[in-house]
Amino acid sequence: MSKSRVALVRCESYDAEVVEKALARGLALLGGAAVFVRPGEPVLLKPNLLTPDPPERCVTTHPAVFQAVARLFQAAGSAVVYGDSPAVGSPASVAKKAGLEAVAAELGVTLADFVTPVEVSFPAGRQNKKFILAKAVADNTHALVNLPKMKTHGLMRATGAVKNLFGCVPGLLKAEFHVKLPNAHPFARMLVDLNLCVRPRLSIMDGVMAMQGNGPRSGTPLPVHALLISNDPVALDAVVTRLMDMDPQVPPTAQYGRESGLGTYLQEEIEILGDTVEALRPRRFKANKLAVSEKEPKGSVKFLKQWLVPRPVIARRRCTRCGTCVKMCPVSPKAVDWKAGDKSRPPVYTYDRCIRCYCCQELCPERAIKIRTPLLGRIVRRG
Length: 383
Ligand code: SF4
Ligand code: SF4
What we know:
Blueprint: E1 4-10, H1 16-29, E2 43-47, H2 63-75, E3 80-82, H3 91-97, H4 100-107, E4 110-111, E5 117-121, E6 130-134, H5 135-138, E7 143-147, E8 149-153, E9 157-159, H6 161-164, H7 173-180, H8 184-198, E10 202-212, E11 220-230, H9 233-243, H10 253-259, E12 270-274, H11 277-280, H12 299-308, E13 311-314, H13 324-328, E14 336-337, E15 348-349, H14 359-363, E16 369-372, H15 375-382
Parallel strand pairs: 1-12, 2-3, 2-7, 3-4, 7-10, 8-10
Antiparallel strand pairs: 1-11, 5-6, 8-9, 10-11, 13-16, 14-15
Helix pairs in contact: 1-2, 2-4, 9-10
One iron/sulfur cluster is lined by residues 312, 329, 331, 335-336, 349, 354-360.
């Protein structure tokens, strides 16, 4: 069996020339972009446009990486468009704040339709036999090139190439998946099905400045100086988790990705080209590196769930009472809400309703929500 190949290349900064050189080096190691996208074939770029944040917050794919990739395909004769469905805000407003809109306008790269929902059947899916996708993806007229950002993630531990394609599901339909699939494992199976359904040709990860800690929105930037490129999103994620000093098996997408034939996370089945993990791995990368339990608590253990499973907690002093967490909480009745409708104080949690999707933590614009394991959970874990 041939190995999956991942190009891992040092990229010292977001200087346009430096990024273009690193990208060219990485693609040359894989045999060139034409191996994955035919010259002249239309290309749809899918950056990470999670929330309206400026590039220096490291929430979104950096405009310099976006620019280098767009130019590369344009130089090969491709018409390039881009898009994502953010968790908060419209695609256009998030692209503007993230610095992508200006670059795109300069290059003549237009925003594709990531708003109109289109149902697509996927009979081969293990978890999902159909998806509602953004029209730009569902139309399947462009080669999909995935541009994830190297970040931590509360639910999936790392938000990599496989997770980034969740943005192909438009708008609030994403929240429905959290309600239907509250456990990280079926959620991961759905993400793997989604990847198999939309079939990205290539993933190019921006790990020049990564996000460690309380990701995917509230963590802290950390220079890793890496670009990762592969046509196997599972293998790319395995290499990036190793850069985070995390076991590649920890993100639940790894195991299902391999079982479903999307790719592999096993070190012996991956060939890393270019630089080594050891050369680029930061001395310390803050992340929750513990595996997510697959078992759903039952009976008395279910009752104890709220005292065992890590839960979101609001740092009251940071909270500006913007209401994003309340608005985005997908369960009904809300698990985080204003106490007696009083918006002059931070919202409060009702933990026995909370499905631990961590959308509130993911989307709080003030980094006011942390994920904390209750005392009982910490004791059990130590035991
Ligand atoms: S999203 Fe954050 S800042 Fe806004 S109300 Fe919730 S905790 Fe407060
Ligand atoms: S309170 Fe937060 S973690 Fe709990 S269900 Fe609502 S959004 Fe998800």
